[in-house]
Amino acid sequence: MEFSAISSSCSLHVPSKIKTHFMVLPTNAATSFRILQIRTLVSNIEESGRLSVSARSRTDVENVESLVLGNRKFWVHFVGIGGCGLSALAMLALRQGFEVSGSDIVWSSFMDGLKEAGAQLHLGHSVSNIQGNNGSSLPDAIVVSSAIPHDNREILHAKSIGIPVYKRGHWLGKVTEHYNLIAVSGTHGKSTTAGMLSYVLKSMGDDLTAVVGAQVPQFGGRNIMSGSGRNFVLEADEYDSCFLGLLPYIAVVTNVDWEHVDIFPDEEAVKAIFRRFLKRIRVGGHLILCGDRQCSAGAYSLLDDREESTVSDNSSGMLSTLRSDICSNGYRITTFGISTTNEWHALSVRCNSQGGSDYVLCHRGYPVTNITLQIPGVHNVLNSLAVIATVMALLNDGRQSYESIDCVKRHLNDFVGVSRRFELVGTVCQCHIYDDYAHHPTEVRAVLKAARQRFPLKALFVVFQPHTYGRLAALMGDFATAFSGTDKVLVTEVYAAREVNIWNVSGKDLATSIIEPSSEYIPSLGDVVDKLVHQITKEPDRETVVFTLGAGDITTVGPKLLHKLQGRLQK
Questions:
Q1: Total Cβ atoms within 10 A of residue 306
Q2: Cα angle for residues 249, 402, 315 (degrees, 5° grid)
Q3: Picking from 89-103, 283-297, 464-478, 517-531, which range would have the lowest pLDDT averaged per residue?
Q4: N or C, which terminus of the chain has less Cβ within 10 Å?
Q5: Nearest partner of 549 among 537, 540, 557, judged by Cα
Q6: Which tens digits make up the pLDDT trace of 61-108?
Q7: 544-549 and 459-464 strand pairing
Q8: 8 Å CB contact between 541 and 459
Q9: Which positions ≥6 away from 412 have C-beta within 8 Å?
Q10: What is the mean pLDDT of residues 555-570?
């Protein structure tokens, strides 16, 4: 099969035959979208059992256009605004012309950008945070992070006076319902895949909107894009059933694994929530999922027997290939993966000179082109395959899809990744310091495997901060074997986040359970820095790589270590 080349000036044009259920926004998209959003919000206030409506709210409903076109903007207050998820929604609201305020108990890097963009931010939770102009004005809606407890004083007060209160998932549904939504889900890889997809589509000429759960350097260091086009790429989170409020045109599932053990008692519970998510795909839409059946974190098990038979083609007498055909739920299914049974799959995966991966892209068993990635690891090969399959589904036109492969290929090669994913903190002498968000055994294995592939001969030291007691207790056995192939592991105390240690477990238990390599329990992050400085300065000419892993404040270790080593080794 031959694939025609495409000129370097190619751009993405979503074909008109794609059927969607959204309104195309007029030229003055910001104002029109605000009116549309407000109308949608207020029309649903009394339909949701979670919301209460006061006489003040009903008056606002009657005068909705005046909220935008009159003397004041529609005011949204975000409770828990410092997190990656809610901060992105707050920034999007600012870009779309809303008045935005928010509160959180600690300051985060996400809040720096929000403050600069004009948000009114508060440290700590207080009723006064939602009382503007000395109490004479109130927010028109409040959006709440999944991490915020129900007895939060701002939420309780808002409900008592009739301000609509939305959980993050419900708000996301309202924000995206009039777009061509591409929801990127999965236990692992959501942020990188959503960021990569958004970057590729933008580079192909799509003026899309995107919300990603991590900062993306090629988004100007932020985690959102705000465009006037019809496509909306969203990182869709399963935590607290957040993605069940969405109605995607395209749903991507990268993988399914047991995670968020505080909500899901086992892997079957995770699969159940994902199956409910798949039922949210719009009729005529598309499901893109990893079809590798042997993968321990595979998504293929989400398909029922009828769907498996729909996407399998045995009529040729050749190797079965999973096809993009319409399933019983009214949407198409396309699979990707390493296995040759997938519609889009990778052959001959190998490391390249950039420290990333090269592979041969195949479509239905036929080689198409060579793909080069800057970002390392087989997990990122899978993420890139998800992007390719999604772009081709969006184009939805056979010949144009094949011609556009070269364009997609070039932009994949240019993608540099997202923050805290194999992120280089700095280099001093022969020591390279990296930081990664990995906090689940599957993620730890993936990033350390990629690290060993990139640095086969260097000493590899790992600092791991367990994230939440519940996750550590539930996955202790998997964590114990996740660090193989490294030279030394330092385990810190657990980052508790929102938990109390009812499991009576600690980082010391993990350090003791790690059989290979040698491990040590050092509770304090400051003591970890001192230990590494002492170790590295003893052998300054030894080529060493340090990885800090975790979802808590472990990210502070790398810069402190770099600073101290510079002071010692560059005198």
A1: 10
A2: 80
A3: 283-297
A4: C
A5: 557
A6: 444 444 444 557 899 999 999 988 899 999 999 998 999 999 999 998
A7: parallel
A8: no
A9: 196, 200, 371, 372, 373, 384, 387, 388
A10: 94
Q: Which tokens sit at 437?
A: 């968000």
State which H helix or E strand residue 321 sits in. Answer: strand 321-322
* Ramachandran quadrant class, 538 (left: phi over 0; alpha: psi -120 to 50; beta: rest): alpha
In the predicted structure, residue 474 carries a pLDDT above the cut 60 = yes
Those residues whose C-beta lies under 8 Å from the C-beta of residue 395, and which sit 6 or more positions away, are 12, 14, 15, 401, 404
Query: Are 190 and 182 spatial neighbours (Cβ–Cβ below 8 Å)?
Result: no
| CA triple 38-39-40, angle to 5 deg | 90
Quick check: 497 and 467 in contact, CB under 8 A? Answer: yes
Distance of CA 6 to the CA centre of its chain: 31
Which tokens sit at 390?
């999604």
In angstroms, the CA 476 to CA 492 distance is: 15
Three-class secondary structure of residue 442 per DSSP: helix
Residue 567 pLDDT > 50, yes or no?
yes
CA distances from 232 to 208, 216, 570 (A): 6, 16, 47
Query: Residue 385, exposed/middle/buried by CB under 10 A (0-12, 13-18, 19+)?
Result: buried
Element (H, E) at 35: helix 29-44
Q: Of 122, 243, 100, which is closest to residue 182 (Cα–Cα)?
A: 243
Cα–Cα distance, 60 to 140 (Å, whole number): 8
**By C-alpha distance, which of 426, 442, 14 is closest to 255?**
442
Distance CA 249, CA 246 (A): 10
Residue pair 312/318 in contact by the 8 Å Cβ criterion: no
Structure tokens at 112: 């720096």
**DSSP per residue over 106-132, as a string?**
S--HHHHHHHHHT-EEEES--GGGG-B
| Closest C-alpha to 345, from 353, 336, 354 | 336
Measured distance CA(475)–CA(481) in Å, rounded: 11
Measured distance CA(448)–CA(450) in Å, rounded: 5
* Residue 461 near residue 426 (C-beta atoms within 8 A): no
Separation CA 99–CA 93 (nearest Å): 8
Element (DSSP H or E) covering residue 180 = strand 180-185
Give one word for 496, left, alpha or beta, with left for phi > 0 and alpha for psi -120 to 50: alpha
- The sign of the CA dihedral 13, 15, 21, 27 is positive
The enclosing H or E element of 61 equals helix 55-62
As a whole number of angstroms, the distance between CA 250 and CA 501 comes to 40
Compute CA 327 distance to the chain's CA centroid, rounded to the nearest angstrom: 27
Digit-coded pLDDT (tens) for 307-355: 554 554 433 333 334 445 566 678 999 999 999 999 999 999 999 999 9
Cα of 10 vs its chain's centroid, Å: 28
Distances (CA, A) of 317 to 16, 106, 321, 416, 518: 36, 61, 11, 41, 51
